[in-house]
């Protein structure tokens, strides 16, 4: 058995993170769909992350030297949908050789350093880049009062850098914009043409991407002149979703009006994305689903410690001329696309591309032949061409990259050479309005715009001090659990708070106890004997249902879960990853390539499928209320 121990997580979101939809709608991020954890028997050598939405688990299992991806088949188009709702595959078993040809286009990542005439561009030389960006100006045009701040940009401010809190400022808050092209692709595929599933799919995708990058960055030590910054961490602060329906609205910003254009090359997209004030953020990225003709997967402004440099983490806004207009511009930005040569790129490739581009923001240049790695262990992250992510060096930075990033990060930390330290402490504190009832709260029904609970004061109300407290006369709030009625009183012990779902659950009918709002799911009197199912899956890994009866921190949310993967019911066992195996070297998984995975291993299907009859659907579909998990 491979048992995954999962818990709800919001570790890589700011405590007040939100989603901005359309022109005016803000909502808190629903982190109840997101999970991380480990393989039970390998707690120190495994990591699991992902999300549950639309009855799917979308995530990654990393164990020792193997990486398994579990994803909705719809993510890669209609080709796989008839085979089943989900695919489970080993990263090594994806054939990417058609992109590893000297005659085929190669996936490229581009970094823009507008201050360095000798900058190396993967797909464009300096002159071509300037032409495509409409002769981007090399110097900002300051506002009337910005001249007063010129000295402070290049001198160190007075700060007690030895303060303990200063040493703990390692969190980089990110603004992420979802390009309308990405919304459109996800809406038609994973989103099932529905708004809420699309939002959940996008949040899960971004969570997986940032989590994978953090697995790389949090282990690094940035060093320069005897100073060190360790455990650099990326956290999502805001997700701005721009849909095709929003495009064309007269109240859109100049930046987003231009982002809505159908045909943009990678440079122009990044330039218009950067044409906003992102001074409140460490980094600001746009994720798109655009197929750039030069094969570009990512683009970023590069950090530097040069005295006249602009760009990189914590960069503040300035005024520039672009396409004849004077615009605000912030160069702490980057761009990622998930389409390459008319094909959805693999999750692994997107994760590595994002890590690569953030490396540019931190000052890393492309590795040359001296620093770029070798044929035995593969190229490092900052190699100019996209790697497969399967070789040992693919998710590591070379010494050359570390030597470049160290001075930039330490200069930001100590506010040298005009840098500003926008990093924050990484303590994760709960907050009123996230709809999770924390220890210091009586209830939490969300913000005033979304709260429908008559028993609880919402966040953001006229009197902020009353937020997340019970209203006068209320004994409880439904936000704390299903055993509280809409009349703000506890349900009677006869009230069923969890309904027996027959074969879909391991708990029978659960009844309230009359004295608390939470549903007593951990009361053993309601447990059923576990009749685990052994179901066929990828590489003869089988999914069964089991129970660890520990409620989540918010009992009103659907219970947490444990996903068990069982090997050996019948059929061959999965092969191990071998050091001398030569992986392919490109950036995308096509639908036909994933379909071909099903044709291997003596006819055993490698797709975790949902059968066509009702019995199969009940057995195999992973539902949110069906899989339990303990908290770590």
UniProtKB/TrEMBL annotation:
Disintegrin domain boundaries: 429-522
Which Pfam families does the record associate with it? Disintegrin, Reprolysin_2
Q: Where is this region: Disordered?
A: 568-632
Instruction: Show the active-site residues.
Output: 357
A molecular function (GO) term: metalloendopeptidase activity
| Biased composition, class Basic residues, residue ranges | 568-581
One biological-process term from Gene Ontology? Notch signaling pathway
Residues annotated as domain Peptidase M12B: 174-405
Compositional bias (Polar residues) spans? 582-603
Quote the biased-composition stretches of kind Low complexity, using this chain's numbering: 620-632
Under the heading InterPro entries, the entry gives: ADAM_Metalloproteinase, Disintegrin_dom, Disintegrin_dom_sf, MetalloPept_cat_dom_sf, Peptidase_M12B
Annotated Zn(2+) binding lies at 356, 360, 366
GO CC terms: plasma membrane
Q: Does the keyword DNA-binding apply?
A: no
Q: Which SMART domains match?
A: DISIN
Domain of life, per the record? Eukaryota
Q: Which UniProt keywords apply?
A: Disulfide bond, Metal-binding, Zinc
Protein name, per record? Disintegrin and metalloproteinase domain-containing protein 10
């Amino acid at each position: 058995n491979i048992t995954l121990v999962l818990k709800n997580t919001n570790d890589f979101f700011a405590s007040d993170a939100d989603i901005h939809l359309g022109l005016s709608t803000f909502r808190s991020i629903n982190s109840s769909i997101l999970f991380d954890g480990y393989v039970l028997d390998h707690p120190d050598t495994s990591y699991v992350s992902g999300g549950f939405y639309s009855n799917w688990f979308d995530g990654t299992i990393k164990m020792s030297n193997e990486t398994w991806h579990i994803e909705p088949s719809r993510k890669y188009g209609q080709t796989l949908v008839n085979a089943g709702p989900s695919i489970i595959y080993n990263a090594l078993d994806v054939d990417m050789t058609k992109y590893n040809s000297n005659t085929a286009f190669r996936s490229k990542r581009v970094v823009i350093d507008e201050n360095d005439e000798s900058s190396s561009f993967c797909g464009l030389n300096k002159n071509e880049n300037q032409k495509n960006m409409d002769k981007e100006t090399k110097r900002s045009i300051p506002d009337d009062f910005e001249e007063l701040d010129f000295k402070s940009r290049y001198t160190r401010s007075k700060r007690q850098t030895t303060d303990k809190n200063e040493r703990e400022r390692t969190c980089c808050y990110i603004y992420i914009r979802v390009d309308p092209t990405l919304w459109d692709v996800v809406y038609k595929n994973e989103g099932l043409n529905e708004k809420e599933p699309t939002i959940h799919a996008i949040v899960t995708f971004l969570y997986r991407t940032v989590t994978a990058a953090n697995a790389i960055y949090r282990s690094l030590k940035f060093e320069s002149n005897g100073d060190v910054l360790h455990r650099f961490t990326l956290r999502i602060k805001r997700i701005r979703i721009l849909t095709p329906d929003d495009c064309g609205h007269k109240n859109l910003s100049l930046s987003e009006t231009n982002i809505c254009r159908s045909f943009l090359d990678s440079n122009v997209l990044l330039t218009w994305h950067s044409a906003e004030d992102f001074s409140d953020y460490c980094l600001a990225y746009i994720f798109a689903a655009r197929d750039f003709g030069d094969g570009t997967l990512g683009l970023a402004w590069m950090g530097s410690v040069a005295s006249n440099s602009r760009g990189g983490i914590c960069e503040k806004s300035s005024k520039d001329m672009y396409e004849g207009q004077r615009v605000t511009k912030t160069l702490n930005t980057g761009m990622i696309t998930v389409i390459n040569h008319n094909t959805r790129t693999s999750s692994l490739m997107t994760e590595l591309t994002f890590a690569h581009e953030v490396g540019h923001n931190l000052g890393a240049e492309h590795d040359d032949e001296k620093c770029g790695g070798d044929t035995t262990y593969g190229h490092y992250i900052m190699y100019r061409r996209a790697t497969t992510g399967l070789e040992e060096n693919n998710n590591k930075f070379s010494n050359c990259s570390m030597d470049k990033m160290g001075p930039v990060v330490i200069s930001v930390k100590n506010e040298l050479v005009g840098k500003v330290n926008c990093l924050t402490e990484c303590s994760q504190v709960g907050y009123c309005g996230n709809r999770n009832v924390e220890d210091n709260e009586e209830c939490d029904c969300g913000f005033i715009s979304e709260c429908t609970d008559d028993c609880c004061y919402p966040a953001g109300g006229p009197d902020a001090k009353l937020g997340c407290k019970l209203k006068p006369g209320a004994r409880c709030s439904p936000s704390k659990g299903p055993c509280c009625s809409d009349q703000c009183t506890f349900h009677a012990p006869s009230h069923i708070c969890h309904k027996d779902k027959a074969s879909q659950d391991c708990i029978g009918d659960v009844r309230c106890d009359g004295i608390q709002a939470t549903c007593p799911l951990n009361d053993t009197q309601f447990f059923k004997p576990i009749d685990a199912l052994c179901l066929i899956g990828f590489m003869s890994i089988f999914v069964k249902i089991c129970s660890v009866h520990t409620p989540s921190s918010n009992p009103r949310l659907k219970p947490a879960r444990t996903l068990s993967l069982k090997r050996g019911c019948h059929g061959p066992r999965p092969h191990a990853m071998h050091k001398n195996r030569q992986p392919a070297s490109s950036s995308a998984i096509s639908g036909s390539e994933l379909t071909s995975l099903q044709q291997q291993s003596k006819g055993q299907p490698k797709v975790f499928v949902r059968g066509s009859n009702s019995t199969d659907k009940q057995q195999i579909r992973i539902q949110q209320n069906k899989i339990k998990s303990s908290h770590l």
